[in-house]
């Protein structure tokens, strides 16, 4: 359940920060009359995300009658979830410093167009997080079918994210968002590795990949699946005591290089030369201000 809680917390906080930036901009710009359009766009995005999650579950449980078809569907959604997770964590790492400025610029353009443009801009800013959350949650919770625990954990993570976002907006809480997204990103990479491993297993059960009975190792004696710590490892990172060879290769081949790339220190920009003009220094200052605004939304 920790994996689904982490998904809800990470995706929920990203969406909450985006909404708080939009709200703060409208409040500071004396355009509170456009706040209902923002909340309408956010509400529609949340509703469609829930509908998308239900549609995935309905397709798997009701529309696919053959077990092989269900296994294949779950395998494909697992691979898609891994792609989305990988793209999301690297995108956030790259865009975090400029996202506030970009959102304010887009909202300024939307205000000039009208109410529908404002609602549409808010909708597009949130729907990506919602669809990702639905897809990743479905893939991460496959191993707990019939159990409401993962869903409650996801809701708990989202609620926590909303509370943190509100406190950040109200300046009642200060956290290092850069470190937060780094640590949660690293953990999500391990979660994604487990999802990929689960997807490979589904491909094997569907007969698409061979080696279903070729085990890489069997440590059931040391890691009893009935123990709490074995259940914790399986629920968080899909670490099982008797994986197949292909499952193990997939887990290692994804987790190791992606973790190394993600944790690699970002390249620093070269220091400005002595000939830097006043205008250039001003631009650098503005960029720094945008970075600070992206990491901690300001209070109106």
Mind explaining what this structure looks like?
It is a single chain. The two termini are 36 Å apart. The model is unreliable at 274-300 (pLDDT under 50). The radius of gyration is 22 Å and the shape is globular. By secondary structure, the chain is mostly helical. The protein is 74% helix and 0% strand. It has ten helices and no strands. The chain has one domain (2-267). Helix 1 crosses helix 4, helix 3 crosses helix 5 (115-140) and helix 7 runs antiparallel to helix 9.
Give the count of helical stretches.
10
Rg calculated over all Cα atoms: 22 Å
Overall strand count: 0
| Straight-line N-to-C gap | 36 Å
Quick overview:
The protein is mainly alpha-helical and 300 residues long. The protein has helices at 2-28, 35-63, 67-95, 99-113, 115-140, 149-169, 177-205, 228-237, 245-263, 278-295. The longest helix has 29 residues, at 35-63.
């Amino acid at each position: 359940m920790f994996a689904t809680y982490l998904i809800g917390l990470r995706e929920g906080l990203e969406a909450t920060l985006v909404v708080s930036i939009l709200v703060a901009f409208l409040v500071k710009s004396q355009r509170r009359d456009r706040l209902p359009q923002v909340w309408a766009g956010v509400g529609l995005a949340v509703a469609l995300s829930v509908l998308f999650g239900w549609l995935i579950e309905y397709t798997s449980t009701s529309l696919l009658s053959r077990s092989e078809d269900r296994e294949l569907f779950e395998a494909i959604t697992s691979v898609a979830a891994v792609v989305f997770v990988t793209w999301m964590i690297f995108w956030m790492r790259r865009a975090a410093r400029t996202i506030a400025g970009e959102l304010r610029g887009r909202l300024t353009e939307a205000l000039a167009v009208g109410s529908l443009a404002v609602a549409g801009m808010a909708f597009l800013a949130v729907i990506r997080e919602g669809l990702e959350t639905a897809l990743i949650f479905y893939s991460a919770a496959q191993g707990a079918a019939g159990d409401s625990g993962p869903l409650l954990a996801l809701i708990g993570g989202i609620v926590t994210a909303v509370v943190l976002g509100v406190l950040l907006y109200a300046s009642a809480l200060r956290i290092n968002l850069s470190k937060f997204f780094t640590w949660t990103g690293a953990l999500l990479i391990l979660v994604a590795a487990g999802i990929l491993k689960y997807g490979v297993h589904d491909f094997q059960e569907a007969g698409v990949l061979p080696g279903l009975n070729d085990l890489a190792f069997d440590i059931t004696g040391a890691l009893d699946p009935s123990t709490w710590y074995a259940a914790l490892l399986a629920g968080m990172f899909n670490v099982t005591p008797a994986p197949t060879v292909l499952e193990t290769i997939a887990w290692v081949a994804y987790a190791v290089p992606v973790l190394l790339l993600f944790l690699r220190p970002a390249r620093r920009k070269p220091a400005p030369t002595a000939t830097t003009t006043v205008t250039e220094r001003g631009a650098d200052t503005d960029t720094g201000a945008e970075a600070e605004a992206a990491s901690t939304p300001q209070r109106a």
